Amino acid sequence: MKLAVFDFDSTLVNAETIEELAKGYGVGQEVTNATELAMAGRADFYTSLLNRASLLKGMDAQHAQQICQNLPLHTGALEVVQGLHDLGYKVVCLSGGFKWATGYFKEKLGLDADFSNTLHVESGVLTGEVSGPLMRGDSKAEILASLQSLLNAKHTLVVGDGANDIGMFKRADVSVAFNAKEITKKAATFVAQTLDLREILECL
């Protein structure tokens, strides 16, 4: 079994979901600043996620869901998933973002599975709370280790952009820094030179 794992925000889609939600709710700049620090490895991921989600308290849930389902895919997203399937890979998304986005794009892209977090809703609006399996900076590496064991993976490809993807890179046979922060580029086997996900197929 061969396993390919993609980060979601800024990797499969050309956006950070929480930033787009924040823009839609008028708290964009505060969230963008916090996201930058977390993705560059200069802030604790867990604390940052809780703080950013709290800024969305009171946002209309239906509006939030629409934003999550209208994110722009990076060029080549459909083709890279299909190409990896053709090469015998199971293709999975691990995201510190949200199920409204990853679940929708799992179906759109034909991913085999998606793992992400859930924004809590009460009376039709966001409560500002979030929960799920990918709350901490090391969560992705832990879930990847479980998947590798469960699937008896003989080869693992990991693609990501942020500091919280580096733990996964350490468990991968091939790691690709795509649209990535400098700290992530230094940890990768390959650094993508374009914003076309089909380039990843050339790294195999």
From TrEMBL:
Coiled-coil region list: none
EC number: 3.1.3.3
Keywords linked to the UniProt accession: Amino-acid biosynthesis, Hydrolase, Magnesium, Metal-binding, Serine biosynthesis
Catalytic activity: O-phospho-D-serine + H2O = D-serine + phosphate; O-phospho-L-serine + H2O = L-serine + phosphate
Enzyme class name: hydrolase
Amino-acid biosynthesis listed as a keyword: yes
Pathway terms, separated by semicolons: Amino-acid biosynthesis; L-serine biosynthesis; L-serine from 3-phospho-D-glycerate: step 3/3
Top-rank lineage group of the source organism: Bacteria
Cofactors: Mg(2+)
Pfam family of the protein (one): Hydrolase
UniProt-listed InterPro entries: HAD-like_SerB, HAD-like_sf, HAD_sf, PSP
PANTHER family xref list: PHOSPHOSERINE PHOSPHATASE (PTHR43344)
Family statement: Belongs to the HAD-like hydrolase superfamily. SerB family.
Name of this chain's protein: Phosphoserine phosphatase
